[in-house]
Write a structure and sequence with these properties.
Layout: H1 15-27, H2 32-41, H3 48-66, E1 76-86, E2 89-97, E3 103-109, H4 114-128, E4 134-137, H5 141-150, E5 155-158, H6 164-168, H7 171-179, H8 186-193
Parallel strand pairs: 1-4, 4-5
Antiparallel strand pairs: 1-2, 2-3
Length: 222
């Protein structure tokens, strides 16, 4: 799959600093102001508002590049759903990860039923273009009903203890939710959830490294 390079045109700071700031924000449960302080200790003066804009602009793209891999018929899909609150209303975040813990897809829906499960599976097949060897879920009956409709030949194991990979993938999102005291809009949730692959492992840095002592001028407006 061809990928066009990320453009940093009209950004004052070097790509390494931008990538490092975004990685810090999504890798650890840090506030924007704490990331600002960490960068300042390394000689980089960047405002928290600039870091917020960087995360919104570059975070999802970094995550997609880190976890792009070729689908295989031997893949195992772990599916799970978790309740979240957006602007005081209950929603469900449906997520699929593979056997390595990489997020394959996720979707926010206001239902927890067969129709919602079927929508997730349909999106996954369209995106992956190949069915997995097996899918693993918790004991929600909607998964089995949706699988029989969408991919009846795929093996299905339904056991809560086997689905730790999918459940663990929600941990960074939960930390971000507590830190932000809830999500105020779907956009705020997307910024956190789409960039969650940056939180899978500390080695998944989107850039080689940030300079240890880089004196930057005042924060860019971008």
């Amino acid at each position: 799959m061809n990928t066009s390079p990320i453009s940093y045109k009209r950004h004052r700071f070097p790509p390494q600093i931008i990538a490092h700031a975004v990685w810090l924000y999504f890798r650890f449960p840090l506030s924007l102001r704490l990331v600002e302080e960490l960068l300042l200790e390394r000689g980089m003066t960047v405002s928290y508002e600039t870091i917020r804009r960087w995360g919104k602009k570059f975070g999802p793209d970094y995550a997609r590049r880190l976890h792009r891999k070729r689908p295989s018929r031997n893949d195992v899909w772990h599916l799970d759903e978790v309740v979240i609150t957006i602007a005081g209303r209950k929603h469900w975040l449906w997520r699929a990860v593979d056997q390595d813990g990489y997020v394959l897809d996720e979707i926010v829906q206001n239902r927890r039923n067969t129709k919602a499960s079927r929508r997730l599976l349909t999106r996954l097949l369209k995106k992956q273009r190949i069915a997995p060897k097996r899918m693993i879920t918790d004991k929600l009956l909607s998964y089995g009903a949706a699988r029989r409709q969408v991919m009846p030949h795929v093996k299905h194991r339904s056991h809560k203890g086997l689905n730790n990979r999918a459940e663990n993938s929600h941990v960074p999102l939960r930390k971000r939710e507590r830190m932000m005291q809830g999500f105020r809009s779907p956009g705020g949730l997307r910024a956190s959830s789409l960039s969650s692959p940056l939180s899978v492992t500390s080695s998944s840095h989107p850039a080689h490294s940030a300079p240890h002592s880089k004196t930057a001028s005042t924060a860019s407006r971008r």
